Structure formats: structure tokens, C-alpha cells
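From the shared-data thread, chain only:
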Amino acid sequence: MRDNLNMLDSLLRRSYRRLGSRHARVLLLVQIPAVALIAFVVAAVLATYYEPSVPDVILLGAIIAAFTAAGMGITIARQQRKLEALAAWRGKEVASAGETIAAWDAATNYAVRSFRRNALVANAIVVLLSAVAVLIVLRLPAWAYPVVAAGGAIAAGYGTILTYSIYEFLMRPAVEDIAAALPEDFQFESSGLALRKRLLISLCAFTAMTALVVAAFVSDGAGTGKLAIAVIGSLAVGLGLSRRLTLLLSHSITEPIAHLRAALARVGQGDYDVRVPVLSSDELGELSNAFNRMAQGLAERERIREAFGTYLDKDVAGFILSGDLPDDGVEVDVSIMFCDVPNFTPFAEHASAPQIVATLNGLFETLVPVITDRGGHVDKFIGDGLLAVFGAPEGFPDHADRALAAGLEILDAIGAGGVPLEVRIGINSGRVVAGAIGGAGRLNFSVIGDAVNVAARVEAATRTTGDELLLTRATSDALLRPSALASRGSIFVKGKSDPIELLAPVRDMRAPLAEVPDAAVGS
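Structure, as C-alpha cells:
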């Protein structure tokens, strides 16, 4: 059986590749003779209760098959518009996300929508007309009509469920093709026939039809009375015994699935410690066990992310984990902030190791949030100082404004007390190389270039000018918003042949300090 299904699946995929958008319509048309054949068999089963002649059986089978094929054709015609989205998607080289979702919806829900819209009306027409044909061909009294119609209804229900399942199978290649192109943010909505309902309807219809066929083989042409008993018995078996079996079977299937759905919802909310019970040793148990292993792996990945966020800037850690980190460095325009604590060495000489660490941690707990809130990233901690970058890895056109605002906010926070240290800040803007720097299996996202070195020299110049914050003319020129700045003259820095003009922000409307003469600042 499995080999036959595999062979049929291979043929379907070949048909889909060759027919393209016509695949779905061709499959629907192919089902018409198949359904007609089933109807012919049903006619033969009903006729068995009356010992008809062979010509009567053939005539009756042909009439019921024609009615059934006509009902199937009407159903296809009414649902033809539902396949337009599928045909439109298949006919485009590049389909939009909306068109792909519409095609997926059409392919996956065609059967259930057709079932809900057409099954009752189409089956009623086919059953009522077929029952009339049975009475005429087999020359039965009018009172036999309800019994024959009831038997036909059982067969129609079985045929509908069979057609529904066959169509889902036949559409699988198209659904898989569309599903592979669905956008990652696709919002799934459950609109198909629930598994519990499918099991209940399918098993009841199959059991009732089987009982009706078995009764036909042992009827010996007993007539309408025997058919009535067979119909009542078939319905009793289908709706009674098989219903209880279906409830037990569906519970054993749907309960593990319900556990998985609830657990997946919790994972989607960030709870990676959730686990589902492995309730069986079959495929569902294997699925539950695989989910638990997946959740365990996600929890481990989250612990790594949290560790990254502890030892690295959180945004940089997310950038690295996203896989967007370029293999090669990129040149970007950024603003570099260099912060340092003046006279830290005398403090460290008279403090204990725990006191030094606690004091520095308290300082950085003040500095780092200010930097990150302004879109900056702490590149590295350097003893009692730090190097921060504004404009990488995320680019900001106002990187200079962000750096200056962060520097001023840091000074305000330090001035408010709580940290027994002073801070001096130097800011410079320019083009740097940003990327993963390192080797031997250890990398760090960092920036390198002359602009970084100059920022460190600018911070050192605060000892000469007496300012808490200095910025270069390059940073001033990069500002997009006006800011009150006072020139502090020009200085020569190591590695630069031309002097660099320094500026200080004018704070609290105080008069600027006198410009300092050109000075040489070493390393």
C-alpha cells in the first residue's frame, strides 16, 4: 500500500511540474469518473436487495453515476473561482507575499470550503433523484422511497468523505510548493476541518457503509424490509459503536497535540523551560520528545544570548547572533567617545580590591545605560575607562548629536552624586573600519582607525583645558542640531601633522573659559 502511495505521489508531482496552474482543475475533473464509479458500485449494492436483472443493474448504475457526476460538476463550477488565486500565483515568476498567502489559502482550504458549502445541497439532490431512479427501474412501491433514500444518504456521506480526503492528497504537491514560498511572518489561522471532527465523520461514515455492504451480501434479495433493517443497523453501528471508538481514538491523538500547541505558545512567549509529557512510544511520542529536545536547545541558546548580553553590548550580541555580521570589515562614519577617570591611580592605591571593583562597577552602571539609550555601543572597557561607538553596527545620520547628548547626560549623572569619581570625556567623528576583529577562534566586534586614536587624545587634552568634555571640529561639523560650543584652540596630537581644533559645550549659560594656546598632546 505504501509503495502504491509513493508511486501515486511521484506521478502527482510530475503532473504538477508539467501542468502548473492547470494541475488543480485537472485533478478535479479526474475525480468525476472516480466518483461516478463509486456511485455505480453503490447502485449495485442497493439493487442486491431486490434480485434485479443484469440490464436493470447496469441501467440503474449508469443513471446514479450520471446524477453523481452532475452533482460533482456543479460543485466544481461553484468553487471554480476559489482556484483563481492558485492559478495567478503559479503563473507569476515573482509573487508578492499577499499573493502567496492567498494561493496557500486557496489550495489548503478548497476541500473544506467546498465540503461546507456544497456537500449538503449536492448530496441531497443526488440522493433524492437517485432514489426516484431506483423506484422506477426496480419497479418498487412508493413507500420504499424513504428507505432507499436513507441507504443512498449513507453511501453519499461515505463518498463525500472519500472525495474530501482524496482531494487533499492530490493537492499536496501544490501546497508544498506554495508553503515553501510563504513569508516568515505569515500569520497562520486554523480554518480547516478539525482532526477530531474528521476522525468522527470519517469513521462513522466508513463503518455505516461497511455494515450496509455486508448486509447486502447476506440479504438474498429480501427486499425493502431487509434494506430498512440494514439501514437502521448501519446507522446504529456508525453513530453508536464507532462514535465511541472515534472519541477514544481522537482523544489519544488530539491530547498530545493539544499539549504541543500549548507548549509552543509558551515558547513563543519566551518560556524555554516548558516540556511536554511523552505519553506514547509511537510517532506522537517521538514528536513530543523532539519538541522537548528543541526547547532544551532554545534554552541553551537563550543562556548564550544572556551571556553575550552580560559580557558584550546587548545590541551587538543580538547583531552577532542574527548572522548579519559581515565577514569583511566595512567603512562607516561614526562618532567615538572616550571616557576616563582622572587621578584614579591614587584612589586605587588606598582602596581594597573589592572596593575598587565595586566603585568601577557603580561608575559603569551609570555610564553604560546612558550610552545605550542614545544608540551607542560600548566597544570595550579599558581599565577605569571605556570606548563607545555611535553609528556602528547600526548606522545613524545623527551619530555626532547622539554622542554629544550622551556625554552631557553622563556628566549630569556623575554630578548628581552616587559615584565618588570624576569622568573626563573626549569625542571625535570620522571614518573607521568596523567588523569582527580577532583570531584563533576569538572575535570581537570593534572599530579601528585614526578617528579612534584621536578620541583618546582629545580626552587626554581635558587635563590641559580643565574641561570635563571636549569634542573635535570634525564632531562639531557633523552635528545636525545646533549646540552652544566654545573653541578651546588647536592642539597637536601624536601621529597628526596638522593641529586639531577642540571645542567644549557651553553648559548652564556659563561664560566659556579662555581659549588655551596650541599645545602638544602625547600618547
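The chain has two domains: 2-193, 323-521.
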